[in-house]
Amino acid sequence: MYRRLATAPRTALQRCTSSSLALPLRPTCSSCTVARCCSALLLGPPLPKSANAGFRSAAHYDVAMIGGSRGGKVMRLCGTQRRPFFSLSKASRREESSASDARALSSSPSTPADRAAEPSSAETAGVASQFIDVDASASRVEAQSDLESKLIELRRLYLDPYDKVYLFLNPLKSTTPMVMMLGNHSAGKSTLINYLSGREIQETGIAPTDDGFTVIKRDTFDMDTDGPSMVSNPKYQYQSLQQFGISFVTHFKMKTRKMPETSQLPMDMVLIDTPGMIDTPLHSSKPSASSPNASDSMYSSDQTRGYDFLGVTRWFAQQSDVILLMFDPANPGTTGETLDVLTKSLAGFEHKFLLVMNKADAFEKVTDFARAYGTLCWNLSKVMKMKDVPRVYTTCTPLGATARAATATTAPATSSTVPGTELSRQRNEIMNEIMSAPIRRMDNLITETEDSARSLLLAMRAAKLLRQDYRQRELLVFSALATVCLFGPAMTMSLSSVSLIGSSLLVMASAVAGCVGLVAARAYLKEFERGLLQSSDYVLSRLFTSKTRTKDVELRWYRIVKPEIMRVVSTYHDNGANGIPRLPICSARACRRMEAVIDDEIPSLRRSVAEYKESHFRRNGESAVGRIKQVGQEGCS
């Protein structure tokens, strides 16, 4: 429950209504209205006295009831200064609670005059009437803001100083919850967006209707924004998309639309519509390994679309909270570009995406449904190396006036091959996943920071080993060269009687040999560096034991860390310098700090977010699910 208290008197006793239970409030000090709940139960701690001073000059106070530890309640007042949701440890809360109890007892009125100054029940009821209900999303936005502040502080202290070259950390600018629609052309992506929006926003059709990425945002007005304006405006969260060039920016836009009250799209969430994935003659004929275009990502994206489609898709996948990968019966996962997206763009984001076989109401025979479903699972098995079959949602999108969506390009289905109740049930599950994107955003923010910290720590340790091996070989080579060029002539001159001319010639020969040896040593070290990078997988066996070398570590190394190290080394090579000696590393103390962030700080934040989510769903779960179920009873025709 989220309430707002406006312009309350300073020494008044407040009352907070929680369901049918009225909890009395009392001030924590004699000069401030900051109050705490008093009940027979052990309640959460109030604000510390140092924070109370910030509220004495505030005109309004925001009071938030959130789930505290051990099932308690925490009352937090938000004014000119705000107490973070996820900042205090349990020990700090206990110490703070004891101190606040002492302050509350000392500030309670003990004289008749003081008791006379207390407000009557009528006055208290008048104050209680000043509480204004606020949408639950306001509390979530506030909690997410506090979480972002904590993550930014952790990054600034322990991660950012060592990530200036590797760039594992993504800036925490994508604060808006995001749902991305991926799939073949005519898979029903635009139709689903229109259904969620309650009005026709995207064009629908059997043939490809859109060749770019479109951001759908709900607001109180209609406006279109082109790509160059979005990527250059700090108001939006898409500045880093400039790295993909003007070819992509011209295929990027945002549609801000006023939607009806029946729209299911929240105000604080955006949808991403992507171009349909298709096969082209260029994509179907792969280049040879010796070809200059041997890179699958470059070949399949830059040559067929004009920009790095797989790279852009991966960027949006990193920012998205829910990803829908949609298929239709006509193309059940047979396009090569779809398989490339699964193996390259969505690698590592399996916890975010849902596999959806849309238009399941179009089957007239059960054998056709079985054949299409089997074909989809067969194609997915080529890229998803798992023993178990992944969950594939079979559903359809409601059409017509009841859905307030775009008109269908296909005739309404009349078959009963797949029961309509089953289609509605699975559509309800998909809708629940989509609507949970805002609350899942906090978990994804923590996951992004944790993954970046683990990748950065692994890169630092691997770079340290590579640099040590390179330095050892470099020292050995130059020591041998110095021995040959300096000590050899010196020993020759000392052990034999050499004339002055002979000594001069010997020195000149040593100098020439030294120059030739230096060139040969540099060429040898460059070749050694190349071989060291090619066999760099050995660092895993030196950094981890057989028990600690998990599948997650190997995937992180092969997919993220090793390619990034190769990129950094290649950048130095392009500038004419050796790459391995210039790889950034950190001290052992800095590595221990990163480990503390991963092992202590991140789990603490996850526990706090889990407590908040439990409180959130306890308050709003039934109403949200009920609304979705009511909408889900619509048919697909």
From TrEMBL:
A Pfam entry, by short name: Dynamin_N
Species: Leptomonas seymouri
Coiled coil ranges: none
Name of the protein this chain belongs to: Dynamin N-terminal domain-containing protein
Lineage: Eukaryota, Discoba, Euglenozoa, Kinetoplastea, Metakinetoplastina
Record-linked SUPFAM superfamilies: P-loop containing nucleoside triphosphate hydrolases
Residue stretches making up the Dynamin N-terminal domain: 179-359
Composition bias, Low complexity: 99-110
Membrane-spanning residues: 475-495, 501-525
